[in-house]
Design a protein that fits this description.
64 residues; 4 helices; 6% strand; single chain; 434 Repressor (Amino-terminal Domain); two-stranded antiparallel ribbon
Length: 64
Amino acid sequence: MIDYSPLWKTLKERNISQYHLLKSGLDNKTLDSLKKNKNITLLTVEKLCKIIGCTPNDIVEFKE
């Protein structure tokens, strides 16, 4: 199972708001998918990493 808990932790540690993500090119539908732990594309993961300045490990983890 995909879990985006690391994303929220990383955003909090770096003082980056969800509003900043939206202003940086992330759309509302994608943000909603992240909140609900739904699938996103690797392109979106790459975009998030560029916006936040992190690696995929800082955004997503896999749980059984």
